[in-house]
TrEMBL record:
Transmembrane parts of this sequence: 61-81
Keywords tagged on the record: Membrane, Transferase, Transmembrane, Transmembrane helix
Name this protein carries in UniProt: N-acetyltransferase
GO molecular function: transferase activity
Amino acid sequence: MSAVDKLHDADLEIREALPDDAHAIAALYVWHVLNGRASFEEIPPTVDEMRKRIKTVRDSGLPWLVALWRGTIVGYCYATFYRPRPAYRYTLEESIYVE
């Protein structure tokens, strides 16, 4: 099955992240921190820290989404405000991590 076929498969679900997703999100992110080049972190955040990050994004009115394949989180994405200065008020930064 190609990646395109998987996108149309009923086994894929995309939904808003929940606080209980923090464990799976943190576990997925560990690889990116330790091996990838997309994250600027050097130490993987704890589950509690990830839960706080999800809450902060959601409380700011921005999305934090998870992708589930057959009920298992296989990716996530979120948006944050780029910079606090007024000139950037319409600018967001997105982060996307997949298994």
